[in-house]
Amino acid sequence: MLRKTYDWTISLAQSRHAYWALFVVAFIESSIFPIPPDVLIIPMVIARPRHAWRVASVALVGSVLGGIAGYGIGAVLFQQIGEPILQFYGKMSAAQEFAHRFNDYGAWAVLIAGVTPFPYKVITIVSGWTHLNFWVFMIASVVARGLRFYIIAGLLRVFGEPVRDFIERRLGLVFTLAILLLIGGFAAVRYL
User: Fold this and answer.
1) Residue 11: CB atoms within 10 Å
2) Cα angle at 65 between 118 and 158, to 5 degrees?
3) How far is CA 72 from CA 75, 87, 139, 174, in A?
4) Tens of pLDDT along 99-140?
5) Which of 24-28, 83-87, 174-178 is predicted with the least confidence, judged by mean pLDDT?
6) 39 near 61, Cβ under 8 Å?
7) For the chain, what is the mean pLDDT?
8) Which of 119, 156, 159, 191: CA 20 to 30 A from 60?
C-alpha cells in the first residue's frame, strides 16, 4: 500500500497540478498522511531548480497549516480522531507517557519532529492534546519545517540530481544528528 501511495505521489510531482498537490500532501502529512512532502519536493526542484524556493514555500505553508489542523485534532477531537491516529502509528502509549511533561519541552519537541524523520503529525496532535501554547507551537513549526524544506530545496538547487540519493536516504539522519548536537550543546552550556 505504501509503495502505491509513494508512486502516486511521484506522479503528482510531474503533473500540471504539482503545486496544489504539494500543498495538499504537505497539509495532510502534518496531521494524518504517512508520506512526507519531500517525495514531491525532490522531483519538482530537480525538474525546475529555479523554482526551488517557491516549491519550499508551498510545502512550508501547507505543512504549517496542516500542523494547525493536527493541533486542532489534538485539542478538540482527540478522542474521536487523534487517539486512533496515534494508535495507528503505534504512538499512543508514548504520547500518554510524556504528556505530563510535554509542555516543558514542547517547543523542542515540535522543532525536532519538524526537522527529523520523526512523524511530525504525532507532535502536532500531542501539542493540541496537551494544550501547548499555540504561538510557541506555531513559531517552532515555522522554524522547523522551514529549515527542513528550504535546506532540501537549496541542496537540490545547487547540486541537483547527485544529491537526490543523499536526501532520500541520509538527510533524516543528518538532521537528527544536528538536532542531537544542538540539544547537547544547550545541555552542556546549562550545566557549565
Assistant:
1) 11
2) 65
3) 5, 18, 16, 31
4) 767 777 778 788 877 877 777 888 898 899 888 999 999 999
5) 174-178
6) no
7) 80
8) 159
Cα angle 171-1-119, degrees, rounded to a multiple of 5 = 40
Residue 184 pLDDT: 59
Residue 189 — very low, low, confident or very high, per pLDDT cuts 50/70/90? Answer: very low
Q: What is the spatial distance between Cα 99 and Cα 82, in angstroms, rounded to a whole number?
A: 14
Angle, helices 162-191/134-159, rounded to nearest 10 degrees: 140
Sign of the four-CA dihedral 159, 162, 163, 164: positive
Q: How many C-beta neighbours within 10 Å does residue 163 have?
A: 18
Residues 30/124, Cβ–Cβ less than 8 Å: yes
Closest CA to 64 of 29, 18, 99, 112: 29
The identity of residue 161, as a single letter, is E
